Amino acid sequence: MKLALVDHGAGNLVSIAQALRRAGSEVVWATQPVDLSGVSGIVLPGVGATAHVMDGIRKAGLEEELRRPTTPMLGICVGMQVLFEGSDEDNAPGLDLIKGRVRRLLDPPRLPHIGWNELELKRPDPLLEGIGSSPEVYFVHSYAPVPTDRSCVVATSNHGQDFVAAVRSGSITGVQFHPERSGTTGTQILANFVNECRKASE
Length: 202
Hints:
Number of domains: 1
Number of helices: 5
Oligomer: single chain
């Protein structure tokens, strides 16, 4: 089974690829549209700002394909943020796969928010199976999405105020934290995504 790891020039690709391979997936580095053909899932990483990530996606010619994915997709950190309509950080448009906007964290003790934080799971979800009731994961961010429809929120965390940490809309999922830097919890989440892609392709 092959998963596409989108390479737009701004993401922790090596560590994510290693975790996906350990979970039993072959990893294809997607740098052009043809690389998304014949895969069972798409992982969209991202660091930095929305505008930079979207610019890399456009330069690679991947925007149209990512706007209409036919397989499960997982967005990570800024890769999650670009799943939404746009961001207040740089007023850049996103992929508009989930309605809502990315906004600056409210009342934070400091920015950027860097370090381990506990997740509060809002409802059961296949992506978060087997990680316990109050797992800790690793964040590096100053912004987070605010979905129009809160029913897509599967986990939150807190840094001054609660913020959205994980979402699902159909087969589109996203996490604001870095699973590739979140120890055994993050490894389990990536393995869960691989398993979801495997089931969807059967």
